[in-house]
Specification:
Layout: H1 2-7, H2 11-18, E1 23-26, H3 31-37, E2 54-57, H4 70-73, E3 79-81, E4 103-105, E5 133-135, H5 148-151, E6 157-159, E7 183-185, E8 206-208, E9 229-231, H6 240-248, H7 251-259, H8 269-289, H9 293-300, E10 303-307, E11 317-320, E12 330-337, H10 346-359, E13 369-374, E14 382-387, E15 393-394, E16 402-403, H11 404-422, E17 443-447, E18 453-456, E19 460-461, E20 473-480, H12 484-507, H13 516-523, E21 543-552, E22 557-561, E23 575-577
Parallel strand pairs: 1-2, 2-3, 3-4, 4-5, 5-6, 6-7, 7-8, 8-9, 10-21, 10-23, 11-14, 11-21
Antiparallel strand pairs: 12-20, 12-21, 13-20, 14-17, 15-16, 17-18, 18-19, 21-22
């Protein structure tokens, strides 16, 4: 009887255990009271679900500590999201070791310090050896653990925005300490100094230290070999020219200024300009003279040409409503033109590659979700917002128009029927992702200028913008509840994969073309056959990637993709022209 009494308030745990679920989300108005009754901690029974890969507990003002047993009970955990709770001032006991964890989101809590024994995990051996993304934004941290780099040596994205930090630990920038770190965000802190040792971050691509108390920027920052984006706005720099530059100039200009030692130092601005102009002239001469013609021909088959917003007469823009912050805050978009999906099984390969990305890089849609649209079927600007389930209306792929509440209920019934018919707990298709909506009072959605919902992440797209064999121009979106960098990484991978597929299509003349009906069966779409003229010449299929700006409702830029830091890891046989 006692055991039944303890488990009764947690039906989610019983369901997860019965269905052998790998993902679990705990949220909603009833959660606070239950956690309070458990002493401000997660219930011990939660740590008896060893199959969990994804765990999210968010928006619980009574959750002060995860509780003992997490590391031992959830050894396969890949993503741990504990956003907008009351964790703090430390973590007791410490979280790790979590040997499989890749994503950790502790944003919006009350953490003040993460000392040994009350932090993320041990340093020797590393407590978080596979961790890639760490979000500590919106806490009260006064300092970072000195052994952070040893605890999480494979860290790629570190978000420290909105804390009380006045310095980085020296060990964070030690040679070889974080060889994979590509994104460092520490805006809205109290940082007074940036060490020259930051140059040891060999993979750093984006750095945001805006709205701090920095007075100088070390010249060594220009030695970061992959750095493409910096933000130092809101700092009172001693070098007033540099202060003006960080407010209005591109990253390249800022780094060149630092590289020559600032105003009146080094070789001087004129010499740098002369060298830059000489290199540009040499590149132009090589292109015009046809130097390396054979190599250029091969590269053209995997050509990615980036069209900047300033060069585009009608760029697509995504406006973001502030309420998505509490549901699914991150979105990245891109337009790709020149895709050839008509020959053979090209469309099937494209849809299959998207499914594989969802399974692998996207962590079965727990880390991110991809949506692809026929660009010609939508009208911009787009709006990314939230709606109550009873109001959100969409025509899902292969289904009739329905409100989200009805659609989710129908999918749940179908999932139960699947389990009965197959006599097993696992389900397939969209039914696998329904748990990601558990406890959400509002659902995220992307709408076009006509007010039609074209995407309902992480569940489905709209029939209106379905991809067909005749589609050549696409709008791609990636959304995430965990990280902007994950969105960018997924988008990079998707676009590079599209370039590979276009090359394969151009080099292999396939017969037995996949019909629209067969392709729709793969994607869950219904057919709408059209005829579209072929793209590309001489078997070559160049792709044009148009930048898409994501802005807030006032028009202020949040992110643009692809930026200079994106698509930087393209393999040698892919040529990216910017």
């Amino acid at each position: 009887m006692a055991a039944a009494a303890v488990s009764e308030p947690w039906p989610e745990l019983e369901l997860a255990e019965r269905e052998r679920r790998r993902e679990l989300l705990l949220t909603g108005p009833g959660l606070e009271e239950r956690v309070r009754a458990a002493g401000g901690r997660l219930p011990p029974r939660l740590f008896t679900l060893p199959l969990l890969h994804y765990l999210e507990v968010s928006g619980c003002g009574s959750l002060r500590a995860p509780g003992p047993g997490l590391a031992q009970g959830l050894p396969q955990l890949h993503s741990l999201v504990l956003r907008r709770n009351a964790l703090g001032p430390g973590l007791s006991p410490e979280l790790g070791p979590l040997l499989a964890l890749r994503v950790l989101d502790l944003s919006g809590n009350a953490l003040e310090a993460l000392p040994p024994g009350q932090g993320l995990g041990p340093a020797e051996p590393p407590g978080l050896p596979q961790l890639q993304s760490l979000n500590l934004s919106g806490n009260r941290l006064r300092e970072l653990p000195a052994d952070l780099a040893r605890c999480a040596p494979r860290l790629q994205s570190l978000n420290l925005t909105g804390n009380c930090l006045d310095a980085f630990p020296a060990a964070l920038f030690s040679p070889g300490a974080l060889p994979l770190l590509s994104e460092l965000a520490a805006a809205d802190n109290c940082l007074r100094e940036l060490s020259p040792d930051i140059a040891h971050l060999a993979s750093l691509k984006t750095l945001d230290l805006s709205n701090n108390q920095l007075s100088e920027i070390p010249a060594e920052l220009a030695d970061c070999p992959k750095l493409k984006e910096v933000n130092f706005r809101g700092n009172k720099l001693r070098d007033k020219r540099l202060e003006k530059m960080v407010s209005g100039c591109q990253t390249k200009s800022i780094l060149e200024y630092l590289r020559v030692g600032g105003r009146g130092c080094g070789r001087g601005k004129g010499a740098e300009k002369e060298d830059g102009g000489k290199k540009r002239r040499e590149r132009k001469q090589r292109r015009e003279s046809g130097e390396g013609e054979e190599e250029a021909t091969d590269a053209a088959r995997l050509l990615l040409r980036v069209l900047h917003v300033s060069e585009n007469p009608s760029p697509l823009t995504v406006r973001v409503s502030p309420e998505v912050r509490d549901v699914r805050p991150y979105i990245v978009g891109a337009v790709v033109r020149g895709m050839d999906l008509r020959p053979g099984n090209a469309l099937k390969r494209f849809l299959t590659s998207q499914t594989r990305l969802h399974e692998d890089l996207c962590g079965k849609r727990t880390a991110a979700t991809i949506a692809t649209h026929d660009l010609r079927a939508l009208r911009g600007p787009l709006l990314y917002a939230t709606q109550p389930p009873q109001d959100l209306k969409i025509v899902p792929l292969g289904r009739k128009e329905a409100k989200a509440k009805e659609l989710v209920r129908q999918l749940q019934l179908e999932a139960e029927e699947q389990r009965k018919q197959k006599k097993r707990q696992s389900v397939s298709g969209l039914h696998r992702y329904l748990h990601l909506l558990d406890g959400k009072e509002n659902y995220p959605c992307l709408m076009d200028a006509d007010g039609d919902v074209i995407s309902f992440p992480p569940i489905t797209n709209s029939e209106k913008t379905k991809i067909k064999k005749t589609t050549s121009d696409l709008f791609l979106e990636v959304t995430s509840a965990t990280s902007l960098q994950i969105c960018k990484d997924v988008m990079d991978t998707l676009i590079l994969k599209m370039a590979e597929m276009n090359k394969y299509t151009s080099e292999n003349k396939e017969e037995g073309s996949l019909s629209d009906t067969e392709a729709d069966a793969v994607s869950g779409q219904l057919s709408d056959p059209q005829v579209n003229p072929g793209a590309g010449k001489d078997g070559q299929s160049p792709l044009v990637v148009e930048q898409v700006r994501v802005v807030d409702l006032e028009g202020s830029l949040k992110v643009v993709y692809p930026s200079k830091a994106d698509l930087a890891a393209a393999p040698p046989h892919v040529t990216v022209l910017r």
